[in-house]
């Protein structure tokens, strides 16, 4: 049986710039072969059982040679596998996709090209530089800045390129920048022609340097700007002054560590990235379901007996409905019970299951939840409280004090996640982290445990940002000094609080 190899353009860097078809291919692939320039977050869409193979190539550092990659794709295709070959940008714009396709075709392995957003257009766009502009630039060319070193004669037509094309975009050209600038000026391009280098274009670590052909080599050396970068030559570079947008965002240039569970981190990361932040995911906690006993199942099968069901987190909502479905039931099992959600994030999670909460406290503290519940309940009523294995007892203790019966259903536990410990330590040790965020007391305590004896020293070099006073109190009791405490106890509130702190 012969498989299929998809030669996919992974886009220029920003994970959201991959095409819909590209994502679909990743999701169904048996094997994913990915490059250095393909964003690692793309792999989050892979099947859990997919085989992931890194085939990255950097200057003078090749994990796999091209002929080895060709052979690998042929082998996996002949095994009947669906292969997603992820290549930065577009596979046919200096991506050697044509070479890989030739090898597959000669071996009789079916393949398809899945075009991608190419960096010579996208990187300038994210720098506020259009490659064409009416009355200024009616043509552009994409040129390799790194020709095959075995060539006896350059294949670049410098004389024509220098003056016949308005905008020139050089790919992989940082190492050859002196030659590029020299050749263009020698063949008629004015020395004062604007030049921009866009490093890691479209990513939150993007850097932009603007100069002229005459001075660009010197300026790049002073700035110590390294590859990968797109070199843009032409008058359109001057438009950056008016069209700059991406690196104007309030958190651009700020590195922020997210410590919440990986299952929840992606949404928080996207909110921070939308404000321009460079996000380092370093989950300190993870959640997992608890074993259900007969009494737990009895409660799940008799939820209609409760006047109110209280959910304290989005995780609790997901684990509750997972357990409910396993018992062969759905939302109808809740009957006429009122539903309370502690926090708007919990409310949004309930809405995914078709439930609009009856009760949402004014703020997200347990004390406020008790006040809201007491207004809706009376003595003798029964409440079902969905909680993790370890939780504060404010709600059940207060309700019982008012003669309200409370059953607690503990469906999951929060434990330490060590999978990203190295990323956390490396980020803090480098001294480049501007903020570390804590969204619960457990993220504080587990982060400190992960950092060990050097915790306070490492965390002393960055600002501490906490959701609400309870998380902040945990941080302070551990010897930390929160710089940001959000008044709104949600990730949106925390993002806004960090933006205000800038």
UniProtKB/TrEMBL annotation:
Is Methyltransferase among the key words of this record? Answer: yes
* Record-linked SUPFAM superfamilies: HemD-like, Tetrapyrrole methylase
According to the UniProt entry, its GO molecular function terms are: uroporphyrin-III C-methyltransferase activity; uroporphyrinogen-III synthase activity
Keywords attached to this entry? Methyltransferase, Porphyrin biosynthesis, S-adenosyl-L-methionine, Transferase
Q: Which GO terms are recorded in the biological process aspect for this UniProt protein?
A: methylation; siroheme biosynthetic process
The record's NCBIfam families line, in alphabetical order, gives: cobA_cysG_Cterm, PRK06136.1
How is this protein named in the record?
A: uroporphyrinogen-III C-methyltransferase
Question: Species name for this entry?
Answer: Veillonella dispar ATCC 17748
Name of the gene encoding the protein in the UniProt record: cobA
């Amino acid at each position: 049986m012969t498989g299929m190899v998809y030669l996919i353009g992974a886009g220029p860097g920003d994970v959201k710039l991959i095409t819909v078809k590209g994502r679909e291919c990743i999701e169904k692939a048996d094997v994913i072969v990915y490059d250095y320039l393909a964003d690692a977050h793309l792999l989050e869409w892979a099947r859990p059982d997919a085989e992931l193979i890194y085939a990255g190539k950097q200057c003078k550092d090749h994990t796999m040679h091209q002929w080895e990659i060709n052979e690998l794709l042929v082998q996996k295709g002949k095994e009947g596998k669906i292969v997603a070959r992820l290549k930065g940008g577009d596979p046919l714009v200096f991506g050697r996709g044509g070479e890989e396709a030739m090898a597959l075709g000669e071996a009789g392995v079916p393949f398809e090209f899945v075009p991608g957003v190419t960096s010579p257009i996208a990187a300038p766009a994210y720098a506020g530089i259009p490659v064409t502009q009416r009355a200024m630039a009616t043509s552009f060319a994409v040129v390799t800045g790194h020709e095959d070193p075995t060539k006896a004669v350059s294949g670049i037509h410098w004389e024509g390129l220098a003056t016949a094309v308005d905008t020139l975009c050089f790919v992989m050209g940082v190492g050859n920048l002196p030659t590029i600038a020299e050749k263009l000026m020698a063949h008629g391009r004015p020395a004062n022609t604007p030049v921009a280098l866009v490093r890691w274009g479209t990513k939150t670590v993007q850097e932009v340097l603007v100069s002229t052909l005459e001075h660009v080599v010197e300026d790049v050396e002073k700035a110590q700007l390294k590859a990968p970068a797109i070199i843009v030559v032409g008058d359109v570079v001057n438009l950056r002054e008016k069209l700059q947008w991406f690196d104007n965002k309030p958190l651009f240039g700020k590195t922020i560590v997210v410590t919440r569970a990986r299952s929840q981190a992606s949404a928080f990361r996207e909110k921070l990235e939308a404000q321009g932040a460079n996000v380092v995911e370093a989950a300190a906690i993870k959640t997992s379901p608890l074993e259900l006993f007969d009494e737990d199942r009895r409660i799940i099968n008799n939820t209609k007996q409760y006047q109110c069901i209280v959910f304290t987190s989005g995780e609790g909502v997901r684990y509750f409905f997972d357990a409910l479905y396993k018992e062969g039931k759905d939302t109808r099992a809740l009957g006429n019970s009122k539903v309370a959600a502690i926090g708007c994030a919990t409310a949004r999670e309930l809405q995914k299951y078709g439930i609009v909460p009856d009760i949402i406290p004014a703020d997200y503290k347990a004390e406020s939840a008790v006040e809201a519940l007491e207004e809706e309940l009376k003595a003798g009523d029964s409440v079902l409280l969905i909680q993790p294995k370890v939780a504060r007892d404010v709600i059940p203790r207060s309700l019982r004090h008012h003669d309200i019966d409370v059953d607690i259903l503990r469906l999951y536990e929060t434990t330490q996640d060590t999978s990203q410990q190295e990323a956390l330590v490396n980020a803090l040790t480098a001294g480049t982290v501007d903020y570390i965020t804590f969204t619960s007391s457990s993220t504080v305590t587990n982060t400190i445990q992960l950092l060990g004896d050097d915790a306070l020293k490492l965390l002393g070099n960055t600002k501490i940002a906490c959701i609400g006073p309870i998380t902040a109190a945990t941080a302070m009791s551990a010897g930390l000094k929160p710089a940001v405490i959000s008044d709104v106890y949600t990730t949106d509130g925390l993002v806004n609080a960090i933006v205000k702190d800038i």
